[in-house]
């Protein structure tokens, strides 16, 4: 192997990968709930209106 090649990382066991995925998923849920509790959320209708306004010029 030349000095420019990066070493291949060891394979992560599937169970450990699933645990990491679960932890990230639960953290994302906690962040979303914190945003909702703090009032940092928008209704679906508001989001659709903003997207349509932003991309209206591109669709013509």
Structure description:
With 60 residues, the chain is mostly helical. It has one domain (14-55). The chain is built from two helices and no strands. It has helices spanning 14-37, 44-55. The longest helix is centred in the middle third of the chain and has 24 residues, at 14-37. The N and C termini lie far apart (54 Å). The relative contact order is 0.06.
Lay out the secondary structure.
Elements: H1 14-37, H2 44-55
Backbone CA Rg: 21 Å
Proportion of helical residues: 55-70%
Structural class: mainly alpha
| Main beta sheet strand tally, sense and closure | none
Mean pLDDT: 88
State the end-to-end CA separation. 54 Å
Along the chain, the helix and strand elements come as HH
Number of strands: 0
3D shape: flat
Residue ranges: pLDDT <50 for 5 or more in a row?
Answer: none
Number of domains: 1
> Strand-residue fraction?
under 5%
Q: Supply the number of helical segments.
A: 2
Quick structural summary:
The chain is built from 2 helices and no strands.
List keywords for this structure.
60 residues, mainly alpha, 0% strand
């Amino acid at each position: 192997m030349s000095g420019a090649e990066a070493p291949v990382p060891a394979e992560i066991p599937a169970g450990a990968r699933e645990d990491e995925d679960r932890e990230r998923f639960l953290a994302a849920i906690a962040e979303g709930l914190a945003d909702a509790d703090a009032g940092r959320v928008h209704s679906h209708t508001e989001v659709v209106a903003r997207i349509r306004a932003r991309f209206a010029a591109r669709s013509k």
